[in-house]
Amino acid sequence: xxxxxxxxxxxxxxGKGTGLHNSLVYIRQHWQLYVIFMMPALLLTLIFxxxxxxxxxxxxxxxxxFKGVSGSEWVGLKHFTRFLSSPDFMRYLVxxxxxxxxxxxxxxxxxxxxxxxxNRIQSAGIKKKIQLVLYLPNFVSVIVLCxxxxxxxxxxxxxxxxxxxxxxxMTMPEAFRSIYIxxxxxxxxxxxxxxxxxxxxxxxQELREAAVMDGANILQQIxxxxxxxxxxxxxxxxxxxxxxxxxxxxxxxxxLQTDLNLPASEIIATYVYRKxxxxxDYSFSTAVGLFNxxxxxILLLVVNKIVAKMNDGQGI
Amino acid sequence: MxxxxxxxxxxxxxxxxxxxxxxxxxxVIAIIVPMVYIIVASFMDPITLQNKGITxxxxxxxxxxxxxxxxxxxxxxxxxxxxxxxxxxxxxxVVVTLLAAYPLSRADFRGKGFFNVIFIITMFFGGxxxxxYLVVSNLGLVDSMWAVILPGAFSVWNMTIARTxxxxxxQELREAADVDGASxxxxxxxxxxxxxxxxxxxxxxxxxVAMWNSYFDAMIYLNDSAKQPLQLVLRSIxxxxxxxxxxxxDMQSTAARAQLAELLKYATIIISSLPLLIMYPFFQxxxxxxxxxxxxxx
Lengths: 316, 298
What we know:
The structure holds 2 protein chains of 2 kinds.
Chain A: H1 5-10, H2 19-29, H3 31-54, E1 61-62, H4 68-71, E2 73-74, H5 78-85, H6 87-107, H7 109-120, H8 124-135, H9 142-153, H10 158-163, H11 173-200, H12 205-213, H13 218-243, H14 250-256, H15 262-265, H16 268-278, H17 282-310
Chain B: H1 11-41, H2 46-52, H3 64-70, H4 73-105, H5 112-124, H6 129-138, H7 146-149, H8 156-167, H9 171-180, H10 184-192, H11 197-213, H12 216-221, H13 230-239, H14 245-248, H15 254-279, H16 284-295
Helix pairs in contact in B: 2-15, 3-15, 4-8, 4-11, 4-13, 8-16, 11-16, 13-15
C-alpha cells in the first residue's frame, strides 16, 4: 500500500488520542476508501448537483448568458411575482397536482392488488408466466409507449375503427389525464408489484396455516397474514410517491402533449422547459423550477410527518 | 419449500377469488392484445391498415414496412448511439455507485455522516433544469455524449441499495480478508463483489434500461443528428410525425405518404423495442432478490 504524503504530513508524531487525531490516523490507514471509493461519486455530486444549486441565483436576476452571474442585474423576486400573479400559474399548478394526485390515487392500489392475486396462484409455473407478461410493458420506452397511445387513439387508429367513430382523443384536453393515467398503470403496475410480491414471500407460513385452520376467509387472511407482510412496503412506497407529487416527470407529459390538449397537459415541468430552453427565458424558468422544488421538499416533509404519526412514530 | 396447500375456500371466497382472477386475466389481456396488434399491423399494407385495420389473411402480409425502416440510415445511427451511451453509462454509473456504497457500508468509516448528508440533500433538492443546463454547457459538454452520461451517473438511491446489500454480507468474509492482509481494493474486487451478483445484475439492468429509454437529456444536449440516440429518432417518427425523409419520399400523393408513415410506425416500434424485450427475461431471476435488497430500509 503506498502512502498518501499529504495525510502523512498531517499526522504529527506524538499527538494525543483526540478524536481528530484518531480520524487522521484512520484516514491515513484507509486512504483508499476516500480517494478511490468516494472520490468519483463525490466529484460527480459536487459538479452536477451542487454547482447547479449555486446557479439558482439567476432566479433572482435578469440573467444574461453573455454577462454571466456576476454581470447580470439583480431583480429580487420579480420573476416569482410575475409567475405567481400570472393566470397561467394557477392552471399549471392545478394541472400538475391533478395529474399526479389522480395518478397516485388510481395507480397506487393496482400493484398491491396484483401482488395479492399473484400470491394466491398455487402453480409456480403459471405465476411466473403471468409475471413475465406483467413486467413486459416496463421495458417499453416512454417514447414508444406514447407512440403506441397516439397510434391507437388517432382518428384512423384501431380504437376508432373498433368503435366506428372518428374521435381525435389526442386533441381533447378532457381526455389527457385519463390517457396519461391509464397508460401509466398499463406500463408500471406490473413492475411495481414486484416489491409487494417479494415482501409477500416473507409472510409467515405458520400464521397463514393457523388462519386457515381457524376458518378465516380470504379477507380475514389478508388482514392477518398478508397485510402485516407488506405494510411497511406500502407505507414506504406511499411516502415516496406522495412526496414526489410535484416532481411528476417531464418525459411522458411532453410526449403526450399536442397543441390542442395543452390546457390540461401543460404541467410545471414542461412549462419550465418551454420557458427556459425554447424561449430562452433562463431566469424566469429557474424561478418556476425553484418554486416547484421548494413545494416538493415541503410536501415530502409534511407527508413524512403525517405517516410517522399514523405509523407509531415510524417515518422514513 | 413445503407449502401445504390447504385450499378449502368457502362460496364467498370462491366468488371473490374468481372476480380477482378475472381482473388479473383482463390486465394480462390488456397487455398482450395491443402488442399482438402492433406485430400483426406491422405486416399489413398501408391501405388495408387504414381502412380495415389488421387481417389474419397471411397471403396479404408483407414486410415492406420493415424493409423501408431497416434500410434507413438514421435508425441505425440511433441504435449505434443508444448502444454506446447505454453501455458507457451503465459501466460508469454502476462502478461509481458500487464504489461509493462500500465505505458507507462500513461501521468504522470516518466521515460517513458527512457524506450521507451531502448525498441525501441531492435527493430532495437540486438546481433544476436551467442551472444544470448552464453547468453542463459551461463545461463544454453540449453535443458530447458525456452530457447525457455524467450528470445522472451517480444515483444516491442505487447507492443505498448496494450499501444495504453489502451490509447483509457475513462479517466473517471481512475478517478473513483482514487476516490475509488484503488491501481494501483486493477485498472489494476479489471477495465482496463476487458475492453481490444479484444486486449488481439489478443495477446493471436498471441503468441500462433507464439510459436506453430516456430522451430528455439527449433532446436538450445533443443537437447533432449524428449523435442522437434511438429514442430521439423514434420521437421524430412516432411523436412528431416526421418520418425520416428517405422512408416515404418515393410515394406520389400526400395521402399515400401519410398512410405509409402510419404503417412505418408499427414496424419502427417492433424493431426498436425488440432488443430490450428479448433481453429482459434473462434478468428475471435476479428481480426478487436484487429488488428486495434495495427495498429494505437501509
